[in-house]
Amino acid sequence: MSKNFKIAVLPGDGIGPEVTEAALKVLRAVQKASKKVRLEFIQGEAGYNCIRKYGTNVPQKTLDMLKQTNACLKGPMTTPEEAGAPPSAAVTIRKAFNLYANIRPCKSLPRVPSIRSNIDLVVLRENTEGLYFGREFLLSPGKGVALRVVTQQASEKIANLAFELAMKRKKHVTCVHKRNVLRVTDGIFVDSVMKVAEKYPSVFVDEVHVDAMAMRLIKEPEKFDVIVTTNLFGDILSDEAAQLVGGLGFAAGANIGDSYGMFEPVHGSAPKYEGKNVVNPVATILSAKMMLEYLNLPEEAGLIEKAVATVLEEGKVRTYDMDGASATQEMADAIAAKILI
Ligand code: NAD
């Protein structure tokens, strides 16, 4: 009996459509190889181009469409920076579906320049509150304020996921914060993580200040497993962690809630590369792999992981960020071909 899933596809803008098409090629290959899985792709509009058309970057009809699907594969989207511009499409979707966890794995890959060969960590970021939520006000000309809301409820929720994840991995959770300065908000966050830790005596738990963590990720990244932190700290640390293992072209991400998941690369729309067919699609392809894991299709996810590793190991098809000259779609074709062998 085949397993059927409806997948919303939001290609986005900039390099978004190119990397999303690459991931779709690979998913279609998985579907062909597995035969047990049927993925119906439903394309929707979101991103920069929607702002002029609809006054928002995620129109209501797209939100309604997402509600009819099991998961969303999202390409990167440009977010205007002027005051008053709508929040990013990612933030809007995270909010609409309460996607409270942002999971960003970071692993050394074969023949990809990596600061160490044995890095295998995950940055797990609270996704619904904190400074990244973007609640800001202008008090008077030249004087602005940003709200950093942290609740015990949301902190315990992400902490639970951190420990569950650690139980399946190396049984180590590192709580990253800046409690020595942000005593109230990070006080709540750390206390919540430590409370949840009591339920997991077999998991080793430690704490690191965010500034020290930025340093230790360079000095000894192989010593970490699950790094759990608040929204903005996680955003910054996950880009740093991505660079340790080859850069943003390899960094996949999942946004998970209790009943929906959105999967997207960590990188943005890189407008200077738009339409050039040169960027690395692996981050989006590995995001699609995470989507299959979320849909409880571990074998199919494994096909993608193995195909990516084989193509990288062979080293024949390499995009510019690996000092190669292969096109985005050549890389996708090579990965899809390995799945179909
Ligand atoms: P960016 O991630 O788009 O690009 C930074 C640089 O990283 C690029 O110039 C390129 O050198 C490299 N890079 C990114 N993706 C790559 C890939 N797949 N392969 C190889 N190299 C790659 O970051 P930015 O320039 O800060 O942001 C551009 C736009 O993207 C902004 O509007 C920003 O708001 C948006 N953005 C969107 C998302 C999202 O949709 N989730 C995430 C981050 C940034």
Q: Please tally the helical runs, counting DSSP H or I stretches of 4 or more residues.
A: 11
Largest sheet: 10 strands, mixed
CATH architecture identity of the largest domain: 3-Layer(aba) Sandwich
N-end to C-end Cα span? 23 Å
Named once each, the bound ligands are: nicotinamide-adenine-dinucleotide
Q: In which range does the helix fraction lie?
A: 40-55%
Give the overall shape.
globular
Strand content: 15-25%
Name the structural class: alpha/beta
Low-pLDDT residue spans: none
**Corresponding CATH superfamily of the largest domain:** Isopropylmalate Dehydrogenase
CATH topology of the largest domain: Isopropylmalate Dehydrogenase
CATH C-level of the largest domain: Alpha Beta
Give Rg in angstroms. 20 Å
As for the number of domains, it is 2
Give the averaged pLDDT, no decimals.
96
SSE arrangement, N to C: EHEHHEHEEEEHEHEHEHEEHHH
Strand order of the largest sheet: 2-1-3-12-11-4-5-10-8-9
Q: In words, what does this structure look like?
A:
- By secondary structure, this protein is α/β, with parallel strands linked by helices.
- It folds into 2 domains: 1-103 and 246-341, Isopropylmalate Dehydrogenase, CATH 3.40.718; 115-244, Isopropylmalate Dehydrogenase.
- Helix content is 40%, strand content 20%.
- The chain contains 11 helices and 12 strands.
- The chain has helices at 16-34, 48-54, 60-67, 89-96, 152-167, 185-197, 210-219, 231-244, 282-294, 298-314, 328-340; strands at 3-10, 37-43, 71-74, 101-107, 120-126, 136-140, 143-146, 172-177, 204-209, 226-229, 252-256, 261-265.
- The strands form 2 sheets. It has a 10-stranded mixed sheet, sandwiched between helices.
- α1 links the parallel β1 and β2.
- α1 (16-34) crosses α9 (282-294).
- The protein is globular, with a radius of gyration of 20 Å.
- The mean pLDDT is 96.
- The structure holds nicotinamide-adenine-dinucleotide.
- The site of nicotinamide-adenine-dinucleotide has 18 residues, from loops.
